[in-house]
Amino acid sequence: MSEAAGSTMAPLTRHDMAFRRKLAIFSSNSRELSVIFAALVMFVALSFSTDTFFTELNLLSLLRQISVIGIIAVGSTFVFISGEIDLSVGALHGLLAMVCAKLAINMGIDMYAVALVGVLLGATLSGINGVITTKLRIPSFITTLGMLSIYSGATLVLSTGMPISGLQDPGFRSLVAGRAFGFIPAQVLWMVAAGIFGTYLLLFTRFGYNVFATGGNKAAAKAVGINTDRVKILAFVCSGALVGVSSFILLGWFRGVDPQTGNGLELSVIAAVIIGGTGLFGGQGSVLGTLVGALIIGMISNGTVLLGVDSYYEPVAHGAVILLAVIIDIWVRARR
């Protein structure tokens, strides 16, 4: 075989994979700027269109409203970048919140211990999704679609279709739903903390490198010794753990849980991730972009209310934005 042919067929080295990861991050950063610009345009437009949008009360309320979506979307970013998808995060959020409510309210278990149970249970259940997807070679779309139904049914069985309320732990409620410095909602700080943690994990650890490599080119990642199955499973675990965080925050916030909690939430989470510039087919994305995507979703909802638009148009707007983001993603990949 000629030298040229041999070099063409040679497997990628870790140096090549590192270069591809930097390229993916550069591409993600470019898309981040586009998403941030779009968010700024929407922000300015709403500020001039209504008298109440650009007020401290409304802006803090907006950030608090997107906090649960933002936290869950940070975890889903890892799953998407690894080349998979999770449709069950909304149903899992509802199930974990119901489990936490049963333990804390009905059984009187300390809320801090309950919160830990929620995180560990979320990581375990989501990790099972990863195992089924990677080891049984079932597409994650099918796996998590089935789990969505299982989690929703389990929530109804656990609650017997009735809401649970009456959490009486003022210290915990202050921690997850109080006001920092007298005016910043604690939920916002939890979302920021999740964003910082996710960014560090994705950009400054070997695990983050492996997530990009696995989603960018699974065969090449295997060729340089990356255990791609384990990477994907851990991505699901990270996602489930953050769903657990969102569930105990919700419980502390509303002092109870409804059996319908989380229904349809996965659509908003997926929208935030895709709008934020994470590649639909894996290999690129960022936590910052995802959080900006969640902010755009929140501004659409907030703006329709303030502008007096019929609420029936809100899901139409969400769907249109998702389709536009997917079209842009496919177009950019075709150009590359």
Automatic annotation (TrEMBL):
GO CC terms in record: plasma membrane
EC number: 3.6.3.17
Keywords: Cell membrane, Hydrolase, Membrane, Transmembrane, Transmembrane helix
Family matches, as InterPro entries: ABC_transp_permease
One Pfam family per UniProt: BPD_transp_2
Primary localization class, coarse: membrane
Annotated GO MF terms: hydrolase activity; transmembrane transporter activity
Enzyme class at the top of the EC tree: hydrolase
Location within or outside the cell: Cell membrane
Positions of transmembrane segments: 59-80, 87-105, 111-132, 144-168, 188-212, 233-253, 265-283, 290-309, 315-332
Topology versus the membrane: Multi-pass membrane protein
PANTHER family assigned: ABC TRANSPORTER PERMEASE PROTEIN YPHD-RELATED-RELATED, RIBOSE IMPORT PERMEASE PROTEIN RBSC
Listed name of the protein: Monosaccharide-transporting ATPase
